[in-house]
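Input set for joint prediction.
Command: fold jointly, output tokens.
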Amino acid sequence: MRRPAVALLVGVAVVVAGIVLAKLKVNPYFYFAAYVILQYVVIATAWNILGGYAGYVNFGTPAFFAMGAYTAVVLIQWARAPLPVLLLAGGLVAALLGLGIGYLTLRLRGTFFSIATLALSVVLQTVIMNWEYVGGSRGMSVLRPSGPPFGSYVTFLFTVMVGLAVVAVLAARFVERSWIGRGLAALRDNEEAAECMGVPTLRLKLFATTISGFLLGVAGAPFPYYVTFVEPNSAFALDYAVNALAMPMIGGTTSWVGPVIGAVLLGTAQQLATVSISSEWNLFIVGVVLVAFVVLAPEGILGLVRRLRGR
Amino acid sequence: MAEALLEVAGLVKRFGGFTALNGVSLTVKAGERFGLIGPNGSGKTTLINCVSGVLPANAGSIRFEGREITALPPHQRSRLGIVRSFQIPKPFTSMTVRENLEIALEYAGAGRAGAAGSANADEILRGIGLESKAHLRPAGLTQIEMRKLELARAMAARPKLLISDEAMAGLSSTEVDDILEILFRLNAQGITIIMIEHIMRAVMRFSERVLVLDAGERIAEGTPEQVVRDPAVEKAYLGE
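tokens >
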């Protein structure tokens, strides 16, 4: 069988496993925590398409995530739109934002690009804080639709997030192994040389920022229904910026597996810390682990494994 | 006379108030070995940056095979067949030597049927003497191997016009001969070559025609023998 077909089958199997898990009715907190970890699988994977494959470090993850979340809030407010519409619309709005920062790469590279994305997040948060329709800085409550297709609404959202994680990972894997991924790697290594060897760098960068934005927005779209109360500080939380960067770095940025490993490890550690120590320790853990990895294993867990195998 | 492959007319490039190229014109014929020399800061690299599209020109026109290319981005020019190597090697560091070539093959070379004969990455590496390094990352290469990789990658893009920007700077004299031989061989395969070089021995031996730049203007053009006897050239290099 061809490898893409195998990957697709594995993806379907994971979704089926998710549905089965949702039917099992273990402790409801499990689904609540697992949702967050899966959400980080999507976020880390999406971030890595731009940050890992193309080498453009995006500090503005909260902006994209919140675009997805607030697009959903607007559509819920305005038309009680169904979840699939929220996902698609949240993704598209964030994709447009991605396309916009893609054009920034014409003039801004390296640190300057990263600073611009950080600024973007601050600007958008200010806009949302002053927009009363979506609750402004006070935030607003969101009522979940009654009667999810199965189980409780949280188990349903958990299953949805399993599906989104699979879609994100398959998309990243496809990009990585196609001519697009090879071109992105070339421009990450040396943009000028890549361009001179025929790589259409601008078009590839726009593709990377757009698809990365889309997936980040999709990850944020179910957020209003998950928390049922959306306010700017939680939608634009610094956690997203730090985790989106730390998870791929810890897992390894050169392959789609890296962000998945990083998200599962760090996400789980954070959830455990939240329950057993305190929710304030989340970012502390990330910080310590990230510093350790940057110093000791700059190529992440994948790099460590490769080194141990002696390659 | 062979037809013109590259025609540059009245090229102007300014950086703020500094004029790096002041109305430079030149014509390179198909199959020619063309040398570009001049003192440091005379605008050689700026000129080829404009020809390869890395820098936009402020005025003037560039035609390749009769086609106006002044406004094309670099990747489209390389697909047409204008390929350059870099003065300071710029390999793709996360890839192996072979993968470096494959990028050029895939993006620039594959679309155009064999201007330089059809060769895959391994054949090019064998031809240039890097086949034993194919699986290495560029960080594991020596200076001369790095220069060869730079040329090999340019070859993989199947150039019609190869612009070699100081491929020999800092190499020993046997290594210079090594690179020269490679360039002669490429030219024999029908590739037009513009060589930018400070090593006079090499550029004079290699070039059929030489253009001398000084302070952004062309001061002489002709066969190597004519150029070295030109008083303007002597003045540019040695002063009055």
